[in-house]
Amino acid sequence: MSMIRERAAEGAVGFDVLFASSEALPLIKTGGLADVAGSLPVALRSLGHDARLILPAYPHALKQVRELRSVCELRLPGALSPVRVLSGFMPDRDLPVYLVDAPEHFCREGNPYTDVSGRDWGDNAERFLLFSSAVATVAMGVPALNWRPRLLHCNDWQTALAPALLRDQDERPAVVFTIHNLAYQGLFDRATFDRLKLPPALWSVAGLEFHQRLSFIKGGIVFADRVNTVSPTYADEVRTNQFGCGLDGLLRQIGGRFQGILNGIDYQTWNPATDPALTQPYDIENVHLKAGNKLEVQRLFNLPHDENAFVLGYIGRLVEQKGVDLIVEMLPWLLEDPSVQVVLQGSGEASLELMLKRVAESHRDRVGVYVGYDEGRAHLIEGGCDAFLMPSRFEPCGLNQMYSLRYGCVPIVRRTGGLADTVSDGRQGPATGFLFDEPSAEALCAKVREAINLWRHDQNAWRALMRAGMEQDLSWQASARQYQGYYDEALQARQELERALA
Description:
Belongs to the glycosyltransferase 1 family. Bacterial/plant glycogen synthase subfamily. This protein is α/β, with parallel strands linked by helices and about 500 residues long. It is about 40% helix and about 20% strand. It contains 19 helices and 18 strands. Strand 3 (about 65-75) and strand 4 form a beta hairpin. Helix 11 packs across helix 14 (about 375-385). The longest helix has 26 residues, at about 475-500. It is globular.
């Protein structure tokens, strides 16, 4: 271990880190990236690092950031007017936040990536090139901010052009790029590349070109000092043809520059002993009290109140990746058991939303569906359900199975990605949940029936499962310590490159 890393591990050396993300909880959320961006910088600050968050100035963010003030204006390519940088703090914690205020790009209805009908914004390439340009500018130091990061941490395709824009800059910060889901790459046609007026040298296989298309995500993979994804197993999977989305060769090629670091969860926000969303708080010493939340879940989803029902939950995007179609296909078989109830919350593909609504209408006393996302409802589902469904076809990390473990809501998951890294069926260490391999409704249903059988006939064994899951350390503190070491590697790699170029 290097002297720098030893001192960092002791908390004696702090990094100045600019954390760039297109979403962050509680300001705006569409998926797990928001949870990471809202938690990892906070955990880094608790370890002594000056981590600051930068994201677009969406209307929801502008309303929530505390002590918001304008600190400077940037002249950026593609912006019709100067872009303001606003400074403030997260509403619920002392995390400094910079908002990139370009109203023509970010002040609009819908979510960060799609309009109210669910279609991608037609100018997403322009929007996130501008954001990446702002990130790169702030990363190089803006005098009005009186702060310059030693390290830039970019996330997913929406920030991936920042490393490409910084590639030739003298005295640039070290750059870490995190892939949260390789399936979302920011792909556009050659005409978009030309329209964006990106440097022509970037149009090459060694740059942003990907099968004659512009790939934003390649900017992060090719030009960052270190690249990671969000679980060790997913890091192995994306280097295979099956899960690599065409980039497996590149990820194999960069070798030791790429690894998996497991995400964590916020133990303050997700704590069954203090969670205000729960009717009945509980902890590992009082897991029996969890049953008190089941009645509230049943009330919320208009299901019959029955403490003896086995209640399954699902929270997540309604897309094929998450295996929601497997749940829909399984339900008729599962509902043959009169003691089973199922509650689901999420939004996504219109066809899956419609299928779930139809199932709920035809089984009103057994299935409850909420299309959309509500944070309090999500907490209550974890606190009130007996088990949690996560039959993903692939899952880079997954957070809901970790929330479930924390809440003693026993996860039933497919053995893939971060699910395989966080849930154990007893083959290695104490069992904390149920895993299956084949991505089929039959395999999922068989595993759910196995869980129901254990719950029904051996409550002592079931509570042992609950407690084993609740005992795991899945906090962001553990993950932040791994990122701390990875940042040091990136800084050393940057220093070595500077010496080679000198």
